[in-house]
Design brief:
Elements lengths: L1 H13 L3 E3 L1 H10 L4 E4 L5 H14 L3 E3 L3 H7 L7 E4 L2 H11 L5 E2 L1
Parallel strand pairs: 2-3
Antiparallel strand pairs: 1-4, 2-4, 3-5
Helix pairs in contact: 1-5, 2-3
Length: about 110
């Protein structure tokens, strides 16, 4: 399950449908481009709270998944703490990968 999720995340990156980094993700959420936000499980409490609050107010689904190392490696970058998926199809595919574990919150 985890491998499939990370593989699909890499596919979304290659398709150019991801935004990474705190500022980029915030801008995508505010502009309505973000269809799903992924936060690393080892993100700081402050980052987690900030992303949860922003996503809740803009009604963007958010999930916690993997470590910052795993997220970064899956998209071919250095460590990544927050990632926004900007394509509805990829967002649905990633949510489906996590459905069985209940990792997505609205």
């Amino acid at each position: 399950m985890k491998t499939k999720f990370l593989s699909n995340l890499g596919l979304a990156m290659r398709a150019g449908k991801l935004v990474t980094g705190d500022e980029g993700v915030m801008a995508a959420v505010k502009s309505g481009d973000a269809k799903l936000v992924i936060v690393a499980e080892d993100a700081s409490d402050n980052t987690r709270k900030k992303m949860n609050d922003k996503c809740r107010s803009y009604r963007v689904p958010i999930m916690e998944f993997g470590s910052r190392d795993e997220l970064g490696q899956s998209i071919g970058k250095a460590e990544r703490v927050v990632i926004a998926v900007t394509d509805k199809g990829f967002a649905q595919m990633l949510e489906k990968c996590r459905e069985t574990t209940g990792g997505v919150r609205d």
